[in-house]
Amino acid sequence: MNQDFSSRRVVITGGAGGIGETLARRLLALGAMVVLADCDRAALLRVASALNGEVGLCECDISSDQDCSRLIQSAETYFQAPIDVFVANAGIPFAGPLQRASVDDITRVIAVNVIGSILSARAAIGSLANGVDPCLVFMGSLQSVTGRAERSVYTASKHAIAGLVKSLALELGPQGIRVNAVAPTVLDTPFLHQAYERAGIPVEQGLAQAAQGLPLRRIPTLEDVAATILFLSSPATRSMTGQIVMVDCGATAGKM
Ligand SMILES: NC(=O)c1ccc[n+]([C@@H]2O[C@H](COP(=O)([O-])OP(=O)(O)OC[C@H]3O[C@@H](n4cnc5c(N)ncnc54)[C@H](O)[C@@H]3O)[C@@H](O)[C@H]2O)c1
């Protein structure tokens, strides 16, 4: 796909994670300006160094409204302009039977995946309204549209993203802000490793089983997810809003 992102100003939450770093690398190669936001300072510094320092950084916790406001201010300062694309990507996993989930586990998943996505998007709207072809892209999941045993809290949090996308697309459409989500199935990132480890599943075994269960017999790559976010942030999709775009190797197409 031939894309020109040379005048795009992009903020990525969870920017120090697997998807965030891959997306930032692609965006920089296309000439975009990028700010990475993450609560993990060490990871942010590592990723910034891997990207030759060509990104703005903001250490913040998206479940804090104050931090979200600070993120938008620091991004506008870095860009010297409003934000064009806000990628609400930060999220945390939780696997295991609901009965064994502690109140702290449940509260944290909802605080980051739901409240954090809402607060960060809310903070970004004013800046996006002044941006060029402004786009809000949320990070959903296969669990935005399907259920899964022993993923109830995570599933609830990702179904919330689908609701947010649809309602915000209606609310922000008149301001020209497009709102979509990317919804991947399992990806080989620390996020998934953590989920497998908590569930007591060896990582290699979990990944192989996941691939075998998909029609394409493989799992998507981080590049596949980044390419879909780029697509949704590009003029090619200027008439697309309110969509949950599956990157699932056929998982939701039906039963095989
Ligand atoms: N990896 C998968 O299998 C998979 C599949 C579908 C969807 N997703 C979604 O993709 C998104 C990114 O996940 P990833 O796979 O890159 O995982 P990752 O763990 O590599 O990255 C997530 C990043 O978010 C950051 N983060 C966590 N809580 C935060 C907070 N409160 N404030 C700011 N930053 C915070 C972490 O420090 C980390 O750098 C998540 O929303 C996740 O739900 C992942």
Write the layout of secondary structure elements.
Elements: E1 9-13, H1 18-29, E2 33-38, H2 41-50, E3 56-59, H3 65-79, E4 85-88, H4 103-128, E5 135-139, H5 152-172, E6 178-184, H6 190-199, H7 203-212, H8 222-232, E7 244-247
Parallel strand pairs: 1-2, 1-4, 2-3, 4-5, 5-6, 6-7
Helix pairs in contact: 1-8, 3-4, 4-5
Nicotinamide-adenine-dinucleotide is lined by residues 13-14, 16-20, 38-40, 43, 61-63, 89-92, 112, 116, 139, 141, 184, 186-187, 189-192.
Properties at a glance:
256 residues; alpha/beta; Rossmann fold; 7-stranded parallel sheet; 14% strand; binds nicotinamide-adenine-dinucleotide
Mean pLDDT: 96
CATH class: Alpha Beta
Spatial order of strands in the largest sheet: 3-2-1-4-5-6-7
**What are the bound molecules?**
nicotinamide-adenine-dinucleotide
